[in-house]
Write the structure tokens for this entry.
Amino acid sequence: MKLHKLTSEEEKVILFKGTERPFSGKYNDFSEKGTYICKQCGSPLYKSSDKFKSECGWPSFDDEIKGAVKRVPDADGMRTEIVCANCGAHLGHVFIGEGLTPKNMRHCVNSISLEFVPADSNRMETNDTAIFAGGCFWGVEYHMHSIDGVISTEVGYTGGHIEQPTYRDVCTHTTGHAEAVRVVFNTQKTDYEKIARMFFEIHDPTQINRQGPDIGNQYRSEIFYRNNSQKEIAEKLISILQQKGFKIATRVDPATTFWKAEEYHQQYYEKEGQTPYCHVYTKRF
């Protein structure tokens, strides 16, 4: 994941979950039109149209950009913390039931956790997400993470029929899950088709329920599309490869819940200083 360097003051709030003094933040009394993005990773978090004056001393929003903010129990056992869903940066807390707006919700956010992009600015970055399964997720993530324009990657399990599966569960071959990689990318720097092409070139899409020495349905080749555009691109690339003579086994199915894998699986090869044993780039297009 590519992160911006933080100042010591920013680290106190964003990394160590501190709180800036009330009424001191630059976005508390601020009403320009645009988008508020994460100070650490640049992901869009809030639209100015959802900002309102609550007189609490911190910027307040009654909604977030879909999928951009994650809620977690606060360490105090009483409140709900909000963090950037992409990088985990601490934003503040969310409160429900105050009756301040029709949506009845208040995201109380530290200004220092945010950066503002004016509506007429060319700096606004648009992110999208892709999900692929192609054998051991260590190797797929290793190659996907290296693509220019990719913001972050994480490995997990998807396409199965039980909730919150563990690695041990998936390895029983009874849950239906595939080892998969979720890729967040900047659409101004790359696009879904380029990433999907790479997917087909870093694993063998002709193998069924295996990849190299790894055998089992969790190692199947599958694309989990999030919209019709992604589906059409995946099917187009499969057709191109079939015309080239490849007997493609890759499945194309709608995305379902993605369960993040255990932490020791994340960026495995990078942490271990190794390279994939069964995922090697092979030009196919």
Q: What stands out?
A: The longest strand covers residues 150-158. The mean pLDDT is 93.
